[in-house]
């Protein structure tokens, strides 16, 4: 018994009288001083149950007084907690300093009661007040949960918002209520609780769970495509935007909230959306292609804007495609999932390739103009895919770029083959004795006709013009070198070789100046003829070997056939000298190719100089 009494020592307190008038319990309650009112009840509780536990007042009269006091105390506790819970129930409607203070006092009263519950832990049921434990904190949390649920159920849509779908109305009204109430919590309620209670996170969880339950309810039904999009937008776009409002974000850690929809619900919605989006992208791209094909068949010429062909299909295709990609990324909230629709670009380009092939085979009056615009489209598509490679699966990206390269090369071949046809008769003079006598005249005659040919490309945009004329520049120079290697002339002595080398350098300058002025950006081509000219000037076989090795290190596609054909121009080289030079250079060729970097291979030239 002595041991038990020792356990109750914490209830014994010294209560000193004071001359200051102390507010009564009811006065404290009326003034919303819940902490003070609660302390008064705890003092009475401590005294009453300490006396009772120690057996004092064993006479019947005292026992009756104690029982009467216990009943009054229980009633006062009920009044206190009723007032506290009523104040807590108004937590989201305070918006004044006075009400904020009342809420703060109510919260402290709950925590004070929780502490008193803790003090009674360890006592048997008969040895503690019948209302202990009161579990005020647990009741407080249950009250807030009911409060949130009720407010979400009663949420009304703003009458100024015009929405047809009842489902969308319900979602928007609840989302609006959620946002407004979380801002209320962050503004007024947050400061009423101790920091360790993390009340903002608690409210966020309650609202999140209630909103999530509504979306799950909707997701259980078979949804049309529009409703599917709406639901995904709320999950991945609108709802995260609410949580990222600065004032809310400062007090809530959204990473601790469960997913708004579980994986088994979100996956079918995403699949439905992606299927619909693929169909939509395919339909839009098909319409653009049909429009272009119809215009071509009807003989229409591309539109000119500021004397430049306007590539409308490039604008339409890229904007349409990228618009759908961005929309998909926003709705799904994940860039990697966008790759499910980018395969439509590959399908579209396959269809475009068939259209492109028809144009090249045709002989319509608008063929050249349409091919020029198509070339601009192909280049812009290639640049778009290259810059946005992360949006495409690797196999789709490779396939798209391959299709674009094939079509681009076929377009360039169409124009360069026409160039070669127009210059065919003049090409025959290159590398001939006529050329040796009047190299400048031959070169200027060819370039004059070439210049007339490339005037038709004046209406191309700058980027497309650079690519097309760059290809023509390379093809023209390759044909020039090929004609030189046909050995129509033999340079039998040093003087002839020196003169031919000098003329090659001058011709190189004329060709480069003509084509770069027209729009070619292939600046590196200017060194090819001077380097070949250097081989003509050199007389010592060892010096020729060294120059050839240097030449191959820059142009790894320089083959043994090219070397043989060029060396045969030097009539004073013996067969043995040529054989030794070729043998020595061949030994170095494999090592040079291994060391050559990608830039050098991208500047391959001699592979298109076709000699027999």
Known CATH architecture of the largest domain: Orthogonal Bundle
Total E-strand runs? 2
CATH topology name of the largest domain? Tetracycline Repressor, domain 2
Helix-strand string: HHHHHHHHHHHEEHHHHHHHHHHHHH
Radius of gyration: 45 Å
**Biggest sheet architecture:** 2 strands, antiparallel
Number of helices: 24
Terminal CA distance: 120 Å
Uncertain stretches of 5 or more adjacent residues: 1-18, 55-65
Residue fraction in strands: under 5%
- Walk across the major sheet and give the strand order: 1-2
Give the number of domains.
Answer: 4
Given the C-alpha coordinates, what overall shape results? elongated
Mean pLDDT, as a whole number? 88
**CATH class bucket of the largest domain:** Mainly Alpha
Structural class: mainly alpha
Helix content: over 70%
What does this structure look like?
The chain is mainly alpha-helical and 612 residues long. The protein has four domains: 2-135, no CATH class; 155-261; 265-411, Tetracycline Repressor, domain 2 (Orthogonal Bundle), CATH 1.10.357.50; 428-608, Tetracycline Repressor, domain 2, CATH 1.10.357. It is 71% helix and 1% strand. The protein is built from 24 helices and two strands. The protein has helices spanning 2-7, 25-30, 34-53, 60-89, 97-119, 136-153, 166-189, 199-219, 225-243, 246-249, 263-297, 312-332, 339-361, 367-387, 394-427, 433-437, 439-454, 462-484, 494-518, 528-537, 541-554, 560-567, 575-595, 598-602, and strands spanning 304-305, 308-309. The protein has a two-stranded antiparallel ribbon with strand order 1-2. The radius of gyration is 45 Å and the shape is elongated. The termini are far apart. Mean pLDDT is 88; it is low at 1-18 and 55-65.
């Amino acid at each position: 018994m002595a041991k038990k009494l020792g356990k109750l020592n914490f209830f014994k307190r010294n209560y000193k009288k004071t001359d200051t008038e102390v507010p009564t319990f009811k006065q404290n309650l009326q003034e919303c001083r819940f902490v003070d009112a609660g302390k008064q009840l705890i003092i009475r509780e401590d005294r009453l149950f300490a006396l009772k536990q120690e057996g004092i007042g064993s006479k019947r009269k005292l026992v009756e007084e104690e029982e009467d006091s216990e009943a009054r105390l229980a009633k006062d506790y009920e009044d206190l907690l009723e007032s506290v819970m009523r104040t807590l129930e108004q937590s989201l409607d305070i918006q004044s300093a006075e009400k904020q203070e009342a809420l703060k006092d109510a919260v402290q009263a709950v925590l004070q009661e929780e502490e008193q519950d803790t003090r009674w832990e360890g006592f048997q049921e008969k040895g503690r007040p019948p209302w202990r434990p009161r579990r005020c904190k647990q009741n407080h949390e249950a009250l807030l949960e009911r409060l949130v649920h009720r407010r979400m159920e009663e949420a009304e849509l703003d009458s100024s918002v015009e929405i047809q779908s009842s489902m969308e109305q319900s979602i928007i009204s609840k989302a609006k209520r959620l946002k407004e109430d979380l801002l209320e919590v962050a503004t007024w309620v947050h400061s009423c609780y101790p920091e360790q209670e993390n009340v903002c996170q608690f409210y966020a969880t309650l609202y999140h769970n209630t909103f999530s339950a509504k979306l799950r309810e909707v997701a259980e039904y078979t949804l049309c495509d529009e409703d599917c999009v709406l639901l995904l937008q709320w999950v991945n776009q609108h709802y995260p935007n609410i949580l990222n409002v600065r004032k809310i974000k400062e007090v809530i850690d959204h990473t601790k909230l469960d997913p708004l929809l579980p994986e088994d619900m979100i996956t079918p919605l995403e699949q439905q959306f992606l299927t619909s989006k693929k169909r939509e992208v395919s339909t839009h791209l098909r319409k653009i292609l049909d429009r272009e094909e119809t215009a071509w068949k009807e003989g229409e010429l591309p539109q000119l804007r500021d004397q430049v062909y306007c590539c409308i299909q490039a604008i339409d295709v890229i904007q349409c495609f990228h618009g759908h990609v961005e929309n998909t990324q926003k709705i799904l909230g994940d860039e990697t999932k966008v790759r499910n629709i980018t395969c439509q670009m590959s399908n579209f380009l396959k269809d475009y390739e068939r259209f492109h092939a028809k144009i090249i085979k045709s002989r319509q009056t608008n063929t050249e103009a349409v091919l020029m615009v198509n070339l601009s489209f192909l280049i812009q598509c290639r640049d778009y895919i290259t810059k946005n490679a992360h949006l495409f699966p690797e196999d789709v990206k490779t396939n798209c770029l391959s299709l674009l390269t094939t079509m681009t090369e076929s377009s360039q071949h169409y124009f360069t083959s026409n160039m070669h046809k127009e210059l065919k008769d003049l090409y025959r003079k290159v590398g001939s004795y006529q050329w040796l006598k009047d190299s400048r005249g031959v070169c200027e005659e060819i370039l004059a006709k070439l210049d007339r040919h490339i005037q038709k490309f004046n209406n191309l945009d700058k980027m497309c013009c650079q690519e097309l004329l760059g290809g023509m520049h390379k093809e023209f120079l390759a044909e020039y070198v090929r004609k030189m290697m046909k050995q129509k002339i033999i340079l039998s002595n040093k003087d002839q070789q020196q003169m031919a080398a000098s003329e090659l350098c001058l011709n190189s300058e004329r060709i480069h100046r003509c084509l770069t002025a027209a729009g070619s950006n292939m600046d590196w081509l200017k060194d090819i003829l001077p380097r070949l000219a250097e081989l003509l000037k050199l007389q010592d076989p060892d010096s020729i070997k060294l120059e050839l090795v240097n030449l191959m290190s820059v142009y790894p596609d320089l083959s043994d056939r090219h070397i043989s054909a060029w060396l045969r121009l030097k009539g004073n080289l013996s067969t043995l000298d040529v054989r030794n030079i070729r043998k020595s250079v061949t030994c170095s060729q494999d090592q040079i190719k291994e060391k050559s970097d990608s830039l050098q291979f991208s500047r391959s030239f001699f592979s298109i100089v076709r000699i027999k």
